Amino acid sequence: MSHRLMKCIAVLVFAFVALPAAAQKVKIENQGQAAVDVAAHELTVAAIEKDIGKAPAGKAQIVFFRSATSPGDPVGVRDAAGGVSLIDLEPGMYFVSTTTPGTRAYATADTGPFSMDLDAGRTYYVQVIRKKGGAAQLLRSTAEKFARVANTTKTTD
């Protein structure tokens, strides 16, 4: 083989050996950001748990909340299966409901069943909003969103 061909092969071999190292570096950097995001989420959850508490053993809890800037009258949230009213949620308020695990459905006067599969020991977040036309709606949410919009007003069951 010629010297030039050997040099080309050596460069290609080096490139193939270096490629996994470069890909691994990108992966490590992505895992680093993911770890930062997970840590931030855990801090948010811990801060919220100081205020509302953890789900009791064998139970799930749902935090229904409404932004302080949400327009309009109170929004009634009820158990869709039994029709039992849970709360009339004013802007800036939140309500913690403790229930047994399993599939549960909730509703407002404007929206039909909003189903949730609940696991024991977990806290779920549902934001109550009013759409532009004034109709109320329930939306799945997160601890981070709750922390951003929650007010100090609290109602519990």
Report the count of strand segments: 9
Major beta sheet, specifics?
Answer: 5 strands, mixed
Kindly name the structural category: alpha+beta
What share of the residues lie within helices? 25-40%
**Helical stretch tally:** 2
Distance between the termini: 83 Å
The percentage of residues in β strands lies in 25-35%
CATH class identity of the domain at 55-151: Mainly Beta
| Strand order across the largest sheet | 8-7-1-4-9
CATH architecture of the domain at 55-151: Sandwich
Low-confidence stretches: 15-19, 151-157
Radius of gyration: 25 Å
CATH overall fold name of the domain at 55-151: Immunoglobulin-like
Round the mean pLDDT to the nearest integer and report it: 78
N to C succession of SSEs: HEEEEEEEEHE
Coarse morphology: globular
Keywords:
single chain; Carboxypeptidase regulatory-like domain-containing protein; 9 strands; alpha+beta; four-stranded antiparallel sheet
Characterization of the model:
The chain is α+β, with helices and mostly antiparallel strands and 157 residues long. The chain has a domain at 55-151: Immunoglobulin-like (Sandwich). It is built from two helices and nine strands; from the N terminus they run αββββββββαβ. The strands form two sheets. Strands 8-7-1-4-9 form a five-stranded mixed sheet. The protein starts with a helix and ends with a strand. The model is unreliable at 15-19 and 151-157 (pLDDT under 50).
